[in-house]
Amino acid sequence: MALLRNLCTSLITHERLITTVSKAKELRPFAERAITLGKRALAADAPEGALHNRRLAAAYFFGGNTNRVPDGGYKRPHAPRTAGVAALDKLFDELASRFAERPGGYTRILKLGARKGDGAEMALIELLGSETKEVHEDEKKEEKKKGRRFFGRGRKKEASEAKTAADEKPAKKTAKPGAAATPAGKPAKKKSGGSSATPKTRGKKDAGE
Question: Is the pTM of this model over 0.85?
C-alpha cells in the first residue's frame, strides 16, 4: 500500500510516470478509483458528501504535513504543503472537472521495452489529456533556453561586438570625403610639412655655406 500511495501521488502530481509494467498495471485501477472519488465529490449535492469523498480519497495519497509544527506558540511558521496534500488538491480542483464527462479509463499505459541491467519491462503510465500540457511546457522551456549562454560567455561576446560596432559608426561619419581610407587598427600617416631634407643633410648644407 505504501508503494501504491507513492506511485499514485507522483502520478497525480506530474500526470505521468515511468515504472515497470507490473507496477503500472497495479497502479492503474488504484489511481482511477481516487479520480472517481473526486468526480463523486464534484457531483455531490450536499457539502457533507463532498467532504466524505475527499476524506476517502486522502487514503490514496501520503499523509500530509508530517513535519507539522505543534500548535500553541507565538508566530509559529505554517507547515509546508507535502506532496500528498498537493496531489489531493489537484485531484479535486483540476482532474475531477477534466474527467467529469468521461465514464472511465482515465489513464493509458505505453510499453517502453526492457530496462538495461535487470531486463525488467518498463512502461509509461499517464493521465489522458496530459500530452497537450507537456507540449506547451516543453515549448516554454525551449524559449527560455534560447536566451541562455554557458556561464554568460555568449552575452559578453554579444556585448563586446555591439560596443565595437557602436564605436566604428561615428568614425565613419566624421571621415572627410577626400581623405584616403586607412585599414582598421592602423593610424594614418602624417604628412611632413616644409623641406624634405633630413637633419643630417641640413647640417651638411650649413657647413658648406
Answer: no
